Amino acid sequence: MTVNDERKLLRASLRERRKALTAAERIAAAEGVASSLAQLADFIVDELIAGYWAIDGELPLHVVVGQLSQRGQRYCLPRISGPRELSFVPWSAGAELESNRYGIPEPVCTEQDLLAPQALDIVLVPLLGFDRMGHRIGYGGGYYDASFSFLRDRAEAERPLLVGIGYAAQQLDAIETEEWDVKLDYIATEKELIDCWGDAE
Q1: Is residue 201 pLDDT above 60, yes or no?
Q2: Domain total for the chain?
Q3: Residue 111: which residues within 8 A CB-CB, separation 6 or more?
């Protein structure tokens, strides 16, 4: 069995693990992850914070987005802008959205609204699974790894900070990496903020 086959099976298993969470657990996790993110000083003060529109049982970010708005920070959503390429668009509640080829809502915008990944301060990255070293199992499209490939060879946290967002139940003991994988700097769950450079064991 190839690494690719193993990852397909792992993704299916992780999706089932996430689907098993109850509505009450998801609601509590939305509050918990906001508390975990508040432990990251940069998250409280940085201007441009990118996130995602939660689908298919992903940990919802509505609590986080509300807090960013109250602090006057700008929240951005990703938009597919090329082959395995993401740009980001400032978005606020009520602004128009349209579905992309995967059925994921994206902001309606002009070319001038698009921000390059390098322009962001912090990126909240969706995932299916993670380990404490900052390795991530995504959805297989490679959009985040390709869009943030300029961070691949870093030896410490750099801008933008990549913060994986997931339920504690999505943690794995270890993830076998590929050469194109980009490590996360932090992971925020409903239980804790993991420093992938300093806290990894």
Answers
A1: no
A2: 1
A3: none
